[in-house]
């Protein structure tokens, strides 16, 4: 009886081994059958985008300046945040937009954001202004902070218009602890500049705040504001791209500059021409034409790929790169992230071919 039983065991084991080998060969030939051959993809699942989606209630909506509304969002057990952090709002249409938190970090049940209506923009601000009313619920992701307040001997801030929003919590924090700080705050008019009354009160002693309304005095003199800053001073700037460029140009040598952008930088590198992108998991290859984004070419084959800003600063379209030399043109990724991922809405290829984990 022992010999037939042993023969049966050997036959079953041999059949299992042959089946395993056959399955391995089948997967190698066709990575999409019956399941991906690679581990769980990280494309679309980076730490930047992995924060949970929460539904918050709009409990207060206030017009705080010409064309600027402030929203108070409430929910339970909200993650803490620090000055400089921003929140992703998933708008009713599905658009994702980033807004700086401008409330009180010590209020555990509330997030506060403010947005200016951009009449000729891409629709996000208009949707906030026209559709988000008190009593509405909205999905949010975050908060995240790529503009943190660092330790420094002194601080100089330059803000333009709605660019004051990430800076305001910093000013409150610095004023509360008696730190050395100054602010140059510019805008089209005083009526269009949010939080102006509070800011002037914060800087009432010592002349810390300089307000420049364009309809009264023209553009802010960034060169004069930065000319005499001492070593060890941290410089922060948030606002429109021309203001960013002016501050960058005027910054004395050896000083540290921290920038927060709400739109893509101008003057990007020239077009790299046409190149090829292999979508590894899908088993497809797409051609990216000169003047066409990787995102646009990929979406012709994979229309489900997520994206939002299409300008390289929100991170929604971040994808893992398995091979190829990346021409990074974004304003968001860290040096570590740039080693093996890219924002496919703006970045391109230097090597003629990219392989994406898609």
Largest beta sheet, briefly?
Answer: 6 strands, antiparallel
Low-pLDDT residue intervals, each spanning 5 or more residues: 25-50
Shape: globular
How big is the Rg? 26 Å
Work out the helicity level: 10-25%
Strand content: 25-35%
Helix/strand structural class: alpha/beta
Strand order within the widest beta sheet = 4-3-6-1-2-5
Task: Round the mean pLDDT to the nearest integer and report it.
Answer: 84
Number of strands: 18
String of helices and strands = HEEEEEHEEHEHEHHEHEEEHEEHEEE
What is the helix tally? 9
User: What's the N-to-C terminus distance?
Assistant: 55 Å
Short summary:
By secondary structure, this protein is of the alpha/beta class.
What can you see in these coordinates?
The protein is an alpha/beta fold. It is built from 9 helices and 18 strands. Strands 4-3-6-1-2-5 form a 6-stranded antiparallel β-sheet, covered by helices on one side. It has a 5-stranded parallel β-sheet with strand order 9-8-7-10-11, with helices on both faces. It has a 5-stranded mixed β-sheet with strand order 13-12-18-14-16, covered by helices on one side. The longest helix is centred in the first third of the chain and has 28 residues. The chain is globular, with a radius of gyration of 26 Å. About 7% of the residues have low confidence.
């Amino acid at each position: 009886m022992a010999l037939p039983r042993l023969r049966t065991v050997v036959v079953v084991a041999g059949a299992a081994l042959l089946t395993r080998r056959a399955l391995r060969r089948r997967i190698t030939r066709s990575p999409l059958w019956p399941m991906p051959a690679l581990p769980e993809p990280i494309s679309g699942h980076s730490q930047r985008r992995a924060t949970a989606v929460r539904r918050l209630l709009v409990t207060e909506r206030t017009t705080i300046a010409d064309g600027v509304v402030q929203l108070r969002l409430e929910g339970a057990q909200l993650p803490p945040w620090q000055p400089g952090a921003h929140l992703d709002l998933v708008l009713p249409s599905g658009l994702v937009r980033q807004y700086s938190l401008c409330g009180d970090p010590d209020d555990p049940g509330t997030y506060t954001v403010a947005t200016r209506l951009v009449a000729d923009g891409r629709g996000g601000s208009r949707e906030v202004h026209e559709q988000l009313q008190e009593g509405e619920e909205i999905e949010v992701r975050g908060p995240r902070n790529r503009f943190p307040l660092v330790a420094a001997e002194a601080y100089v801030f330059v803000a333009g218009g709605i660019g004051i929003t990430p800076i305001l919590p910093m000013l409150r924090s610095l004023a509360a602890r008696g730190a050395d700080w100054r602010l140059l705050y510019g805008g089209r008019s005083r009526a269009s500049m949010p939080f102006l009354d509070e800011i002037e009160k914060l800087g009432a002693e010592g002349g810390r705040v300089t307000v420049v309304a364009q309809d009264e005095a023209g553009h802010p003199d960034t060169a004069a504001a930065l000319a005499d800053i001492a070593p060890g001073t941290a410089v922060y700037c948030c606002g429109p791209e021309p203001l960013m460029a002016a501050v960058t140009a005027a910054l004395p040598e050896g000083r540290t500059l921290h920038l927060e952008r709400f739109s893509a930088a101008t003057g990007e590198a020239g077009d790299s021409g046409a190149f090829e992108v292999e979508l590894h998991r899908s088993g497809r290859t797409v051609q990216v034409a000169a003047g066409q984004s990787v995102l646009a070419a990929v979406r012709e084959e994979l229309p489900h790929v997520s994206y939002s800003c299409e300008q390289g600063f929100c991170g929604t379209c971040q994808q893992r790169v398995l091979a190829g030399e990346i021409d990074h043109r974004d304003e968001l990724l860290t040096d570590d992230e740039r080693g093996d991922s890219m924002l496919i809405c703006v970045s391109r290829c230097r090597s003629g071919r990219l392989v994406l984990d898609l």
